Amino acid sequence: MKKILFPTDFSEVSKNAFIYALKLADAIDAEIITLHVYELDSPAYLDVSIYLQDIYEYEELSDFENYKDEVPLLRNIAEENNMGHIKISNVLIKGFLVKEVVKLSKKESIDFIVMGTKGVTHLREVFLGTVATKIMNECDATVLAIPEKCSYMPIEKILFNTRYHMDDIEPLKKVVTLANVFHSHIDCLNIKAPHTVYKDDFVVDFKNIFKDQNITFHSVLANDIEGEILNFIEKNKINMVAIHERHRGFFEKIFQVSLSKKLTFHINIPILSVH
């Protein structure tokens, strides 16, 4: 059975993302391991050192009581979405989130990590050194990041941005596997600056390798590359953006552009990061 790791802080953002974890688990016949990591911060002053152990014990007890109250709510979400049959186990660990996610991901041979992100601004920050970025960098599992205001929709259309280089083939195969589970269509999109002559792409090879799959290959000439991708997402009603992890820097630009131009269109769709 496949395994999905779901780091959670029990916020509304996390609970919203949990529905995606449930739907994914149901589609691929997986179990879910929820992970809540809490950190104990030392007081900023020194005079209370004799009370330090009491403070730690109080914080640990408070966190445990909160955990004990919140875990059943996740099970309720599963029941409300007719996903009560999915196996869910829960882990509570004291430590640092990224370190514990990486450790547990390796120990349990995790296939997917599903986690919430806080809105459009924070979605940009996912790719700029925050927790989700570090998890994407350090874990071999495929990471699915769910924006705060992203209401669940069936994954009917997936956008995979590519330069049609050979190192994108294996990541695309992973996306295809997931797309077949959801019966989704994939749009492979390559946008080139019109003043540049490209002779190093392998679009013909891509078409041959994936000729039996539900994929459409696009090559577009445009100066505003990031804006063109945003327009493509909106025009084609894309439900998920899949990226090859090594191209993450390129997507940083897209989110920065969408914010700086204050576009009326917001990227409130899941982001799938594939190694």
From TrEMBL:
Residues crossing the lipid bilayer are none
Q: Which domain of life is it from?
A: Bacteria
**Sorted alphabetically, which CDD domains does this protein's record hold?**
USP-like
Q: Where is the UspA domain?
A: 1-147
Tell me the InterPro entries matching this sequence: Rossmann-like_a/b/a_fold, Universal_stress_UspA, UspA
| Family the UniProt entry places it in | Belongs to the universal stress protein A family.
**What PANTHER family does its record include?**
STRESS RESPONSE PROTEIN NHAX, UNIVERSAL STRESS PROTEIN UP12
What name goes with this protein?
A: UspA domain-containing protein
What organism is this sequence from? Flavobacterium aquariorum
